[in-house]
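Q: Two folds, back to back.
A: First:
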Amino acid sequence: MGHEQDRGGAGHLLLFPFLAQGHLIPFLNLAKRLESLGQRGGSAQRRLEVTIVSTPRNVAGLRRAVPAGSRISFAELPFPQLDHGLPPDAESTDVIPLHDFPAFYFATELLRPSFEALLRELAARQGRENVCVLADIFLGWAAESARAVGVQHRVFLTSGAYASAVTFSIWLRPPAFPRPADPADEQPLHDLPDVRVRYAEFLNVIVTEDHATNPMLEYLRWMVTLNFRLSGGLVINTSEAIEPKGLHLIQKLSGLPTFAVGPLIGGRTPPDDGTAARDGDESKDACNKFLDSKPAASVLYVSFGSQNTIPAAQMAELARGLEASGRPFIWAVRPPAEFDGDEEFRAEWLPAGFEARVAAAARGVVVRGWAPQVGILAHASTGAFLSHCGWNSVLESLWHGVPVVGWPLLADQVFDSRLLEEELGVGVEVASGRVFGGLGKGWEHVRDAVDTVLGDGDKARDMRRKATELKTLVRAAVSVGPDGEVMGSSVLAMERLLDSAFD
């Protein structure tokens, strides 16, 4: 199996993330949190062991992100990707073209035989009652494997509770929209009738109207169904302070106990390619120098995440809007959606002279590729984050008290943006999907949204106040008092999770 020597113990958690950076990172942060919980005492009495299970390339990357002296262990599972016509190095969605995503998702079940062999080995050596699988929602078959071997299973949601509840409800029982439908038409969800979704949001989640014969949707529906039927609970990277409504909805939909253990925040490192260390250091130095030169809460950070991007035409409009706003910014750019993400970034994808003008005026920094996101959000000069609203980025914004200009692109990101704006009051949506929102504007819409968040108006002040309050609340959720007795809600949820898994 390639797993490290087990050290023995009464409780062994196997963490099994889906093969994507947006899932690997929170699983790693969860492992670190579990390890620190064991070191603190209390749960340490069960001599908790934590093993992260993944493919060889992913394990290699995760090992580099684990601090020296950590007792987190790893188990490697062979991944015969070629059986599904995938490239030999395709062990993460990071290197998979969008059109190959269905094949990649289907191929993950090739991990099942070696995963079950690992489970049986651990159960035989340590006792079935001392092993618990904590697997990704997109690896629903792992719940079947755990049931077959006779060990406990919990499912880990790396997305937020509200967005998960809405998305899963749409997958399981899609609402019936009239045809033709206007993008703004709304329908209630069958299982969550208090929640209404617009047709445009529905299409973002369902991908095609012909959902009855969509094999990818059928796969996702089956993964969710398996977890809801067979798992012993939902572990969610959120907190009661962030998502009381979302936690209620996901518990109602799933019928399972929920454990809100977040936010799970950790550092991000550059991707491991030949230039990562050099480019990462250069980006970090350029960003820090720029931020140090700007007033507090004045800089807009722009990033669509490690895998997402927008079309070239919208990238040009975004650039014009940033320049027209007159606000300082840092923009982590990737090739437009029409191009291969591995291509060298071309100046022609931005307005003529844009980079030179903003650099000469000390108005902006354009980072090509990786940017030190956590460090940027933590800096006092960062005042807002124009984001795709991926859940990891949302949590990092809330952790650092930074309001969000939302530009969700797909799936659960749409509902994360809604949460930020409508429930938490710390977001303003500038666009949804890969086209600008319903005002029919381009760069003017960007300019106005940036001014709304970074300006001196009542809305900007209110958003900053609420972001500061949330920063305090989310940090309190994961805090432990000096005596070890006073614990935040997410720490208590982690204790309940371990009690349910092993007691």
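A: Second:
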Amino acid sequence: MSDLEVLIRVPFPTDRHAQIAYDVLRLDAEPKRNHVEKSLIVEGNLLVVNFTGTSAKSLRTGLTSFFDSLLLSCETMLAFGPPTEKYHHY
């Protein structure tokens, strides 16, 4: 399916910040009609995102959407202060 690929490594201040971003961003699947696949993993304080698709236009749309969500999650983490080691609100 994939003719094109984009690999992004997003550094965060801590491993916990990267994990929070991963937990938030992994929930948004790419629409099937977009013909783009996205995979996310965490490597220490890096969020590694791999986009594959069949057209540059589809990849650009997927990347734009991803960066909008990434910026929102980063702004939210900044607004609420440093994260705790674990989420204890279950």
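Q: And?
A: The mean pLDDT is 87.
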